Every structure is written in C-alpha cells, then in structure tokens.
Amino acid sequence: MIAILDYGSGNLRSAERAFATSGLDVVVTSDREVALNAKGLVVPGVGAFAACMQGLNAVGGPEIIRERIVNERPVLGICIGMQILFSRGTEHSKNGSHAGVGIWDGEVSLLEAPILPHMGWNSVESDAQTVLFQGLENESFYFVHSYAAKKAVGKAQSWTTHGEKFVSAVEDGYVSATQFHPEKSGDAGLAFIKNWTKSI
C-alpha cells in the first residue's frame, strides 16, 4: 500500500489517482500508524515552505518521515514536499530562513530567473546512477515553483535549468524527492511513479 500524507497541503486527489495507476492500493491519510507502516509514503506539498512545515508539524510529519527512513521504509517528497526535506528554506522569511525537516543539510532559496514562478514543462538532466528516470532520459516534466535547492545532496541528483541550475530530483537510499509534479506530468510522470513503486 502507498500512503499519501495528508497534512493540509498538496493535490491529494490527483496524487491519489496517479499513484493508483501503479497497481498498488493508495490511501490518503494523516494517521501516524498507517503512514509509518505503508510500503511507501508520499509527502506532497503546494504553497509556501513555512506553511507546509506548520501543517506537517501538526500531524507529526517530521517524526514519521525520520522514523520511516531509520526503519528503511521508502519516502517520496513532491514539490514543496521535496523542499521541506532540506534543513532550511528562505521563502517569506524575515529572519533568514525557516527550519525544515533536515533530512538533507541545505537551503531552498529563490531562483535567479527572469520569469517566476517557473511554471510549465522542462527537461531533467538525470544522474547516471538514476533508478527513477530509467527510460525517461529524454522526457519533460511539469514544474510550478519559485524556490529550489541548488547544491547537490544525497547519492544521486538530477538537475533542471530555469535561469539557473537547480536540483530537480534526489535519490538517496530510502528517501527520494522531485521538485516537479509527477502526477501532473502526463505519461512521463506516470512512468516515473511506476519506477518508484517498483523500486520500493
């Protein structure tokens, strides 16, 4: 079973439908035990970094994510769900940055680009060690964001350029993440989801 963590942020129903195409049962939940024990946990996210962290903290999300990783249970973060896995984010912060979950030590900051948000289809330069992009090396994915991580973290990173180069996906053992929305990325996104569900 795949659990999609409901903490008040994200396109939960579209994510539920997309992940159901994998053939696995999918549940949208904020229940700690369900989220901890599912075969895979998806952490979505839409909106601002700080607001997502507030919602995540309210359901014990950081603890669930950390415990799953310790227990070797896969986690996939999507969009802001990727960003909050970093240690800090500068969005709407008057004091420098907001604290994230801290799975990866790094900062999510405003893209230096002529047009923001970065909205629409863009290509991904996938890492040679990738599992999740196998068969998708020449595909494009759908992005909606103005902030991003710009320094490499984890075991394998994939990159996209919009004004500047940023991390568009990370594969790091039991935790993976994408800055793009696989559930909005058509056939390529569904193939990415199937690659992830096969890998868990």
What does this structure look like?
This protein has helices at residues 12-20, 32-37, 49-58, 61-70, 80-83, 186-199, and strands at residues 2-5, 26-29, 40-43, 75-78, 86-89, 98-99, 104-110, 118-123, 140-145, 147-149, 156-162, 164-172, 175-178. The chain is an alpha/beta fold and 200 residues long. It has one domain (2-199): Rossmann fold (3-Layer(aba) Sandwich). The chain has a seven-stranded mixed beta sheet, with helices on both faces. Strands 6-5-7-10 form a four-stranded mixed beta sheet, covered by helices on one side. α1 links the parallel β1 (2-5) and β2. The longest helix has 14 residues, at 186-199. The protein starts with a strand and ends with a helix. Keywords: Amino-acid biosynthesis, Glutamine amidotransferase, Histidine biosynthesis, Hydrolase, Lyase. Pfam families: GATase (PF00117).
